[in-house]
Each structure stands twice: as structure tokens, then as C-alpha cells.
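Query structure, 531 C-alpha cells:
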């Protein structure tokens, strides 16, 4: 079933959008109370169908924009960067839409003419609203897993069968039916050939949540699994690598005293999942300190680089504030610098204070600043207590800044001499300086805001970090971005990016505040603040 083609000659796209908007408005304000159960049930189904059809229209519009080279002409580094920049969707979501476009949009042939989409049945079903985006993902995942030697007709038949399942069932059913159908497609074969396995392998790390925890997910190849099992068998044994037990031996079971391990295991209350987590943490620490990581990565030392302010260090060591809510009992008095009505710190948000309305905090700003988690060069946030523990036991690089962001202490200075400039850029910028970019410092290159070839000078106050994608956008051509270091006002020292006229006709300079969430919380938008 193909979606009806909108005739733009008869009716402009803007008219069609206005008419759709009007119809949605009518639905949004319709009196649902007067509907009988059957009509309500039908409306529920119809709203879902419409939402799916609209998503198919969005894909069609994106395909046309991409075919025309709109991303490049409008100053975006890639098609998915355009989706993030214009629609403010996540990078993950943007990549999924680019993937869907690849499979579901008609392909233009180099010799002219248009060929049908790679997955025409999925494209049609989405266009008429019979399946949704989670069905699309499930079907494409299964079809991608088809053996490489499978006949094209068989793959098309597989796609058609899965669409039929998706029209009636939820995506998880599509996946389990898909596994069954794949096995029939290749009954004597390897369970999914080598290439299909290689395609699926991957590890994803989620963003840190409000408790600074990160979700990890993904799929391991059989070899990676085999190695991991070997390591976990000896490092994750009960009693081993337990951070909650000072007597618990670190490292592999084979190197530990069996009697000590036995004693530690008898009081080990961790779940198997917690044991595996602690073993992994111990292995990562061991490997990071083994000297096998390399001396430096993108100009920064290849170890955990902790950046903290003097206020954070003072607060942590003098315990004028209590950085961990669990360590304070319910009966313990609230610390003096806190208003009695303010609940205990740090549980309420990533910035260690409670917002009484958006961005307005009851705790004084200097106390809040001291309680903020410490940031590593790779963008991870560490609670102060864990930072001090790490600095004590391991050998991270500790960089301490004074209140104006000048480095006071560069740990292990001898090795760092050539890296001091990069470290000095951390407190001001924290990561890529292009407006809206989330890449941490460890993913960036050094950008000379004054053309190095022309000035032959490398002054730290003329440098700013930029990721590869955004560094490439700075050039003199009409769609290039310009940069400069702000010299006065609250944003002094920060790098401003002036968009090309195609992005903003007024060319208003922008500052990236993504790495400075405390500024976003104060309700400050991206434009430069007035001095
Ligand atoms: Zn960037």
C-alpha cells in the first residue's frame, strides 16, 4: 500500500502544514467525553496511525534536504548534525533517522532515474501508518542479520513476512519471529555468519544520570566474551576486589592468599552483578596504571585527569560541607551554611543543589560550587569523595584551579610540561567550544582562534578546543564559521563562534554552554552575556 502523493502544484507545502495543524488543533480540543467507547478506541488507534504517517513525511523531507546537499550548504558537518542542530533531537535519534533514510527512501541512480527503496515493504507500511518506528528498527535489525549469501528474493520475502507480523504484534514479537525465520533461511549455516556478528558487535555507554551513574549496554563477540569470562572468573570471585572491605585482595584470585579471600568471601554481601562491576572497575584501574595506555591522548595525559577548584578541594578536605548524603544520618544536624528548610544536598540534581524553580537555588552559589562533582577531561563527573579516594590510591593527574580559572597545581609537572597548555584550557572550555557540541576535551583538537599560519604564535589565551567535525567548519568561505576569544564581561576567556549568514543572517556570535550546565540553569541562553 503506497502513501498518497501530495500534489504541491495544487497546494503549497505551507498550506498543507497549516491545514494539518488546523486538523490536529480540532482533534486536540475535541470533546472526548461525548465519545462512546468504540469511537474512543478508534480514535486511539487513529492518532497512532497519524503520528506514524507524519514520521514518514519527516523522513521524506529529510531525504530531499540531504539529496540537495542542504547540510553542507547550511554549515553542518553531516546530515545527522543538521537533524541535531535544527530539530534538537539526540545524536542517537538522528543517526537512526539517517539509517532509516538509507533503507526506506528511494535511491537516485547515478545515470539518472530513481530506484525503489532498499526495504520497500517497510517503507510502505510506515508511510500508511501500519507500523511504527520501533517496528522499523526491529525489522531492519533482523533483515541486516540475514546471511550474506542469502538470495535477494529470500531477503525480500523475509522483509515482507516481518512487516506482516509487525502490523499485528509488538516489536519484541517481530524480533523473535525474525530469529526463527533467519534460522530457516540458513539451516546448515553458522548461527549468523561472521560478517553479521561483526556488524552487531558494539558497546554503548549511556550519559551519567542524576546520581552520576552510567548505563552500559551492547553486544560482545564470542571472542570478547571468552576473554571477559576468564577475567571475571578470577577477579569477580566473592571476597575479591571488594571496595567495601579494606582487607579484600585486589587483582586476580591466583595471586591472593586463599585464606584471606575465604574470610572476605564469608562477609561479602555483594550480588554477582556487583562483584562483576567491582572486578571490571579494578581491571580498568589496573590497566590504566600498567603503562600500556600510552603517554598521551590528543595532547592530554593518558590517565584520569581530574580538574577541581580550590573551593572544591577546601570543601572536601575541611568537611565544611558533607559531600555524600548517605554518610549523614537522619538525626545529624544540618550543616550551618544551609537554610533549615533546604533538604540535604546533592540528591536533587547533577549540580549538587536543589532548585526551588527552574535554575533558582536556595543554597548560596559558592557553597553549591564547592559541592559540584569534579569533572575529568573526558567529561565524566565524579563525586568529591570518590575523587579524593582516587587521587589517594591511584595516580591520576590532579589539576587545581583558583577562582578565576588559573591552574595552581599541575600534578606530575615534569611529564606534563608540554601538556600544560592543554590542561590550562580545561577549566574555561571543558570540551568542544562549538555552540551545542557535547564532545568532551579528550575528543578535541586545539584550535588557534588567530590563524597560526599568519601569526606564528601559540598563546594559551588564543587557543580553544574544538572537535574534528567542528574544527573543519572554521574557514573563510561563505558558509564557514568564524571564532574569537571574548575579552571582556562574564564570558571573558571563552571562545565565541560566529555562524555563517546561511545559518544566522544576523551572524550573532554564540558561546557553547553545554559543558557549563550551571550557566544554562541560571536561565542564560547561548548568546554572549553583556559585560
Ligand atoms: Zn564539536
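Result returned for the query:
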Amino acid at each position: 500500500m503506497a502513501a498518497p502523493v501530495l500534489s504541491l502544484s495544487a497546494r503549497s507545502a505551507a498550506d498543507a502544514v497549516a491545514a494539518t495543524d488546523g486538523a490536529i488543533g480540532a482533534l486536540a480540543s475535541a470533546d472526548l467525553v461525548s465519545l462512546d467507547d468504540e469511537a474512543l478506541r478508534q480514535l486511539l488507534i487513529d492518532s497512532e496511525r497519524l503520528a506514524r504517517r507524519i514520521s514518514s513525511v519527516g523522513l521524506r523531507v529529510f531525504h530531499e534536504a540531504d539529496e540537495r546537499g542542504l547540510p553542507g550548504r547550511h554549515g553542518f558537518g553531516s546530515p545527522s548534525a543538521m537533524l541535531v542542530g535544527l530539530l534538537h533531537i539526540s545524536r542517537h535519534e538522528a543517526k537512526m533517522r539517517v539509517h532509516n533514510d538509507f533503507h526506506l527512501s528511494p535511491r537516485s541512480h547515478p545515470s539518472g532515474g530513481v530506484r525503489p527503496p532498499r526495504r520497500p515493504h517497510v517503507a510502505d507500511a510506515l508511510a500508511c501508518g501500519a507500523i511504527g518506528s520501533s517496528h522499523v528498527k526491529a525489522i531492519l535489525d533482523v533483515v541486516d542479520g540475514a546471511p550474506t549469501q542469502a538470495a535477494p528474493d529470500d531477503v525480500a520475502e523475509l522483509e515482507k513476512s516481518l512487516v506482516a507480523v509487525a502490523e499485528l504484534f509488538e516489536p519484541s514479537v517481530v524480533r523473535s519471529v525474525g530469529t526463527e525465520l533467519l534460522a530457516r533461511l540458513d539451516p546448515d549455516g553458522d548461527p549468523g555468519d561472521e560478517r553479521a556478528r561483526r556488524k552487531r558487535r558494539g558497546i554503548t555507554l549511556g550519559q551519567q544520570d542524576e546520581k552520576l551513574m552510567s548505563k552500559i549496554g551492547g553486544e560482545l563477540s564470542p571472542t570478547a566474551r571468552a576473554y571477559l569470562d576468564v577475567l571475571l572468573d578470577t577477579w569477580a570471585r566473592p571476597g575479591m576486589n571488594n571496595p567495601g572491605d579494606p582487607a579484600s585482595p585486589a587483582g586476580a584470585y591466583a595471586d591472593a592468599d586463599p585464606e584471606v579471600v575465604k574470610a572476605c568471601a564469608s562477609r561479602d554481601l555483594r550480588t554477582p552483578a556487583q562483584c562483576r562491576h567491582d572486578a571490571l572497575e579494578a581491571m580498568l584501574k589496573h590497566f590504566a596504571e600498567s603503562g600500556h595506555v600510552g603517554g598521551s591522548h590528543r595532547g592530554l595525559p593518558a590517565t584520569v585527569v581530574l580538574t577541581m577548584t580550590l573551593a572544591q578541594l577546601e570543601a572536601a578536605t575541611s568537611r565544611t560541607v558533607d559531600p555524600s548524603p548517605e554518610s549523614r544520618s537522619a538525626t545529624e544536624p544540618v550543616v550551618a551554611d544551609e537554610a533549615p528548610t533546604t533538604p540535604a544536598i546533592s540528591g536533587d540534581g547533577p549540580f549538587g543543589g536543589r532548585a526551588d524553580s527552574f535554575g533558582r537555588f536556595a543554597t548560596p552559589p559558592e557553597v553549591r560550587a564547592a559541592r559540584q562533582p569534579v569533572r575529568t577531561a573526558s567529561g565524566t563527573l565524579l563525586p568529591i569523595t570518590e575523587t579524593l579516594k582516587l587521587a589517594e590510591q591511584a595516580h591520576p593527574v590532579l589539576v587545581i584551579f583558583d577562582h578565576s580559572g588559573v591552574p595552581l597545581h599541575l600534578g606530575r609537572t615534569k611529564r606534563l610540561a608540554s601538556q600544560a597548555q592543554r590542561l590550562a584550557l580545561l577549566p574555561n572550555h571543558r570540551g568542544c567550544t562549538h555552540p551545542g557540541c557535547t564532545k568532551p576535551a579528550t575528543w578535541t583538537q586545539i584550535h588557534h582562534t588567530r590563524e597560526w599560519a599568519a601569526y606564528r604564535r601559540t598563546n594559551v589565551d588564543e587557543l580553544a578546543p574544538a572537535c574534528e567535525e567542528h574544527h573543519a567548519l572554521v574557514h573563510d568561505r561563505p558558509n564557514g564559521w568564524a571564532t574569537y576569544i571574548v575579552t571582556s564581561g562574564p564570558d571573558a576567556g571563552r571562545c565565541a563562534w560566529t555562524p555563517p549568514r546561511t545559518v544566522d543572517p544576523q551572524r550573532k556570535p554564540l558561546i557553547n554552554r553545554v559543558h557549563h550546565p550551571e550557566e544554562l540553569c541560571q536561565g542564560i541562553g547561548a548568546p554572549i552575556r553583556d559585560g
